[in-house]
Amino acid sequence: MNVTVFGTGYVGLVQGTILAEVGHQVICVDVDAEKIEKLKQGHIPIYEPGLEALVKENSASGRLQFTTDATMAVAHGDIQFIAVGTPSDEDGSADLKHVLKVAETIAEHMEAHRIIVDKSTVPVGTADKVSARMAEVLERRGRAELTFDVVSNPEFLKEGSAVADCQKPDRIIIGTEDEATVEVMRELYAPFSRQHEKIIVMDVKSAELTKYAANCMLATKISFMNEIANLAERLGADIEAVRQGIGSDPRIGYHFIYPGVGYGGSCFPKDVQALIRTADAIGFDSKVLKAVEARNAEQKTTLFAKIREHFGGELAGRTLALWGLAFKPNTDDMREAPSRVLMEALWEAGARVQAYDPEAMEETQRLYGTRDELTLCGTKETALKGADALVIVTEWQSFRAPDFDLIHQQLSEPSIFDGRNMYDPARMARKGFTYYSVGRLPSR
Ligand code: UGA
């Protein structure tokens, strides 16, 4: 099938590439000429395991093309994906200007029936807005006879495993009431729904809400666990035992109940906020979501509070080694990353930071490069040199079994502040560390 994808960000690039991989003819279009030029040469703008090789392979086979030419792109695809960004407005609601601009572009150039697929995470009611905008443009062009259908088909990719998530989706949500569209979408996704039926068809608003509900539910699990972890610390209980104790109930499950330093990234914080704003706009007070957001904001400050207390409230002149800057492993993304809240608090208190991350060094340089209080280190070991204590914010694999003797030797006060519960407290005590983690008593 012929498919066009507007937007070569995370979602568009991964989805377009995977559709080409299974045999569809895909054109990815973007307004950013420089990005398109790089993609044509096989350079991808994000760090995502496995993606670059697939982009190169499918470009070479001719199934995947990149262009800035919207006229050609609209002519190509019977199916037109909208996968452009929906940044947060100042008040936290999703800004639809890019989505509506693409809708205008499609309506401006289309000459035959088109299926428009909203892939971006957009508030409930957006498909109606896209339809209205397209109808206006077609009317103005004097081509009101041209037909189209707007479908909501949200994505559920995780950064770091986006390719695998897209190749083996848990479910494919198709939001439309048009039978003919459903048939076309079934054909498009048939390669992903062969052994088990993955496609769930529903009305367009339910599909739009499903995306937010999924992310908000996951964010709720995390904030809930962080709350219980804070309680456990104060009650002298061990959250890791509690986690296993509750996860064994299949109604609760083991997934997404890891306490930590709060959720970050480009999705959860934005989507929780956007759903709160959607509810506010219709006069509904979303009490649970507001609590989820408040707990998360506070959780991002907990590690700093422990560090400050350990050093008797005085951090001026202290140097902290920081391992992990990305909001989670296997990405270089630092949007809403807990590391940023921590570093900024440490600097405010007069401390210095020596930081290392396996992938996010360039991004940190871009965000904070000019600050004197930050030293970017080439390895996790060099970050320890001359530091007072070690702080771990992201659970990269390479931090799982470090040389503890070396760490002990390098730190002036051998203490570890672990925001991800990576180590066994008893072992840390045996190794001579003062060890702070999340939801467990400090061990000495
Ligand atoms: C999230 C969802 O997991 C995807 O299903 C969804 O498609 C995506 O948002 C999106 O809307 O585009 P992502 O933001 O890439 O994906 O990252 P996650 O792996 O979900 O992690 C989010 C945050 O939660 C991270 O900061 C992570 O450290 C934190 N987290 C996760 C915890 O603190 N505890 C957990 O148990 C799990």
TrEMBL record:
Q: Where is the UDP-glucose/GDP-mannose dehydrogenase C-terminal domain?
A: 321-425
Highest taxon of the lineage: Bacteria
* List of residues binding substrate: F156, L157, K158, E159, K211, F256, I257, Y258, P259, G260, G264, K328
* EC id: 1.1.1.22
State a single Gene Ontology molecular function: NAD binding
Tell whether NAD is among the UniProt keywords: yes
Q: Where is the active site?
A: C267
The enzyme's main class, written as a single word, is oxidoreductase
Question: Which residue ranges traverse the bilayer?
Answer: none
One Pfam short name: UDPG_MGDP_dh
Binding annotation for NAD(+): D30, K35, T86, T121, E159, K270, R335
Q: Does the keyword Metal-binding apply?
A: no
The catalytic activity, as recorded, is: UDP-alpha-D-glucose + 2 NAD(+) + H2O = UDP-alpha-D-glucuronate + 2 NADH + 3 H(+)
The pathway entry for this protein reads as: Nucleotide-sugar biosynthesis; UDP-alpha-D-glucuronate biosynthesis; UDP-alpha-D-glucuronate from UDP-alpha-D-glucose: step 1/1
- What does the UniProt keyword field contain? NAD, Oxidoreductase
Example of a GO biological process term: UDP-glucuronate biosynthetic process
Q: What family does the Swiss-Prot or TrEMBL record give for this protein?
A: Belongs to the UDP-glucose/GDP-mannose dehydrogenase family.
The record's listing under PANTHER family reads: UDP-GLUCOSE 6-DEHYDROGENASE TUAD (PTHR43750)
What is the official name of this protein in its record? Answer: UDP-glucose 6-dehydrogenase
UniProt organism field? Halomonas daqiaonensis
